[in-house]
Specification:
Strand order of the largest sheet: 1-4-5
Pfam family, one: DUF6487
Number of strands: 5
Largest sheet: 3 strands, antiparallel
Order of helices and strands: EEEEE
Protein name: DUF6487 domain-containing protein
Shape: globular
Helix content: under 10%
Number of domains: 1
Structural class: mainly beta
Length: about 70
């Protein structure tokens, strides 16, 4: 994949989180005591994996600090 900012080839790899983590997207980050799935615009990117490291395939442009993921 080519970077949309600089036009150079992006490096393939994985975006990963600490153990038991899951990736989500929302309009704002919910507070510590709020249920994440109730946040405005919530989208589950990866599910919770107790005892495992969560990861998702991604491509990275280190020069532009741009990350692209598909879910």
């Amino acid at each position: 994949m080519v970077c949309t900012k600089c036009g150079k080839e992006m490096r393939k790899g994985y975006l990963f989180a600490s153990k038991d983590g899951a990736f989500s997207f929302a309009n704002e980050v919910p507070g510590v005591f709020e249920k994440a799935d109730k946040a405005d615009g919530f989208i589950e990117i990866t599910s919770l994996k107790p005892g495992h490291r969560t990861s998702i395939a991604a491509e990275c442009c280190e020069e532009c600090r741009l990350l692209v993921i598909g879910y």
